[in-house]
Design goal:
Blueprint lengths: L1 H22 L11 H28 L4 H13 L2 H9 L7
Helix pairs in contact: 1-4, 3-4
């Protein structure tokens, strides 16, 4: 799973950098002027909610601290899904039983 996450992070980084360069937009939040931006933002919120819920249940089951999870949520609000991918790379044993 670690290799898959690293590949996903690399591909996502390249696509994001290309998109930002093409749009000449380098801010943490997109301009909410078009309807599609609200859909993209709501999609990110749904994905973050699901990942947070799954990770929180795994952390609770293992009796571990939620500090990293809180940082991941804040990081995702600022940086998008990069924070989720990095969190899952750091907490790689979270899904091992």
């Amino acid at each position: 799973m670690r290799k898959l996450l690293l590949i996903l992070l690399a591909i996502h980084s390249v696509v994001t950098m290309w998109s930002l360069r093409e749009a000449n937009f380098w801010a943490p939040f997109p301009p909410f002027g078009e309807d599609y931006v609200y859909q993209i933002f709501s999609d990110l919120v749904v994905a973050l909610s699901v990942v947070t819920w799954i990770c929180a249940s795994r952390l609770k089951k293992k009796g571990r601290s939620f500090t990293g999870l809180y940082l991941m949520v804040i990081g995702t609000a600022l940086l998008g899904s990069f924070s989720m991918l990095v969190y899952l790379l750091i907490e790689r044993d979270l899904f091992e039983d």
